[in-house]
Amino acid sequence: MAIFTEQKAKELLAKVISFSTADECECNLDGSVAGNIRYARNTVSTAGEVSDVTLAVQSCYGKRTGTATINEFDDASLKKVVKRSEELAKLAPENPEHMPNLGPYKYDKVNAWFKSTASVTPEDRAEAAEASIAPSKKNKLIASGFLNDAESFSAIMNKKGMFAYHLSTAVNFTATIRTEDGTGSGWVSRDFNDSAKMDTKEASAIAIQKSMGSRDAKEMEPGKYTVIMEPAATVQLLANMMGSMGQRGADEGRSFLSKKPKEGEEPVEGAPTNRLGEKLFDERVTIYSDPTHPDCPTAPFAGDGHSVGKTIWIDKGHIAAMPNSRYWAEKTGTQYRPTAYTGGGLFGGNQQMIMEGGDQSLEDMIKSTRRGVLVTRLWYIRQLDPQTLLYTGLTRDGTFYIEDGEIKYPIKNFRFNESPIVMLNNIEALGKPQRIDGSMIPPMKIRDFTFSSLSDAV
User: Fold this and answer.
1) pTM listed for this prediction
2) Which of 12, 358, 417, 422 lies at 20 to 30 Å from 240 by C-alpha?
3) pLDDT in tens, 367-387
4) What is residue 197's DSSP assignment?
5) 373: which residues sit within 8 A by CB, 6+ positions away?
6) Alpha carbon 363 to chain centroid distance?
């Protein structure tokens, strides 16, 4: 059985801890049952289910640490994995940044498990795929897509009495639908904890519309344009920015949040080394994480078992908090700021982001645009400069020219060169946040977004 109840997980981990002779012992138990179906060229190509449970044991002698993993849980195997982790710890060099295990915490109650998702059957997946394939065939389009549903749990225990347990479900769907001649393409993505919210027919209808509407795209000159960005077009840029907000990187002069002396000035001892508290973005920008958020819940504890609550990272354009490690927090005398992660397990995806939005719909943004570009999503994003967070990448799967409040025609895709820092200073309007990749991101209307060249990709 790949899903352990809280009580069963607690009993197993307590047994593992009882076999330990090390100074410290911490155990992580993770398990999941996941099902999937994949289709291409309007035909299901693969389908299956995967289940597994893994135990990781970390033993410490002073500042020496060793870790061993196993997926067998009889007493002999449990004793073996504990002994192996202890042997490795004795051989390991000392870690100067080692931090002792944490004690017990009280955790927020999080509702991330839904029976609807845990009960998904192969027949349900087949029907979901057919709901995307059938209308594509009807419109003489070619559909490919992937649906994955999972039930998973994570548990942590150590010798100091800390125990944490989290049970969750998730369902994810993506589809790319293209015209037979390959000149038009549409794409859509949906993810939820509750599969009852998943409607692959409704989602595919969006991709179908964009596919048929993006045929025979026209060329436009590269340059700076007002752009209306759907959530899928900004989520990766924002995730990259959030992943670069770590306090240590800033303190050590390696990030866009590093506080550096002005040219010609000498560093002042004791002066701030990061830009905490500074206003770097439009005042409408507020980004936070919250494991208890009803639309995108996550585990209420970090990988070390520390509790994770609501944390505001950017408050009305100001840098309000910076993620860090326990070691760096202690070294610098700052508050420890662990992060909430999306997806299964403790590190199943990006850091959770919830960005506050506005009250405009996508249609409202289009109507208020005299001349601009509607972007479905960005793809193949790569960093150019870590100090300014300059990125390059491509638009894809539906890019359209807007004139006088209407979508006039499809346009060829662009390569862009842009920084999320600049993007979040050029906001003209925000819409209602939507779930994407385990986060909540609003559609955005951005001025002066830089398109550097054309791309022949659809």
Assistant:
1) 0.95
2) 358
3) 999 999 999 999 999 999 999
4) G
5) 220, 225, 226, 227, 228, 399, 400, 401, 402, 411, 414, 449, 451
6) 27
